[in-house]
């Protein structure tokens, strides 16, 4: 194993420091600074900062011809209040590392320590700390950054810790592993009125009441069916917070999901038709916008082969688990650049779920995740 006992202690302290100071998508400046500060002591060939926002890339270049492997982690936390008694709990009200991105970032720092001590024999390794994964904007921004071409990989890999999966085991398969999704924001516009004379206004109440069940009824099937669709109403508001005003405006937020990207356009069209019909019936105007757009995540067979070989060499048990899963992952955009694969590392069958207010990344996963990635690197680059 390339990590010493001192490494394990220091890496845990680093993870806890990130955990105490969570920053949400687009605000990861201090998190990135902490990563860069830790990397500078390890003397990679190059450190790229402010990549696609606050992204950081550490390049370990052998100077010899060979493939470029990219390993990705995430910088951002969630806008959720943490409920924990841990000494390292969040110090920022309303924000918390409740998805484990602090742990994923620490796994990459563990790799950086190993690569600094035992240089690769050929090619390059790029360790990417990506910003803004949670809102789906980070990967697109990184790929759009002109400097990305300088570190463009031949293969890309990532992981996500997975509560509900036996600790230290892995779920991995070829093909789709995470769904495409996007947030649909629907604005309904009518006319307010005095609450004593609601008939003089145009209320969106009836249309709103009609649309919420109609939209959720677009849900069909379950992965791995390619016909899978899911519409989830996540937020709704109606009118003003006042007893004297009959409402004239409303908003509905809906998350739309499909197993693969090419099914999303059809789902959006069907949802938009429902909105149009409801608004026409109620005499309302409407506006629709889309947010948090995630491509589906698809594992390339050749990249999966590399991960399977690494898992076998490390004696780590793996199978297809419950893949593909309904959740989305911003890593899906990397497949537009090169063959890519993500695996899911068990955090424990009874571990608190991701995005729960009492979730905390298990520190013992760091060494396991780092071992797997390092095995991939050594097999490919020596």
From TrEMBL:
- Residues annotated for Mn(2+) binding in this entry: 99, 101, 134, 160, 355
UniProt keyword list: Hydrolase, Manganese, Metal-binding
Any Pfam family:
M20_dimer
Q: Where is the Peptidase M20 dimerisation domain?
A: 182-278
* Cofactor(s) required, per the database record: Mn(2+)
**Co-factor binding comment:** The Mn(2+) ion enhances activity.
Offer an example of a GO molecular function term for this protein.
hydrolase activity
Instruction: Show the PANTHER family listed in the entry.
Output: CLAN MH, FAMILY M20, PEPTIDASE T-LIKE METALLOPEPTIDASE, PEPTIDASE M20 FAMILY MEMBER
Protein name per Swiss-Prot or TrEMBL:
Cellulose synthesis protein
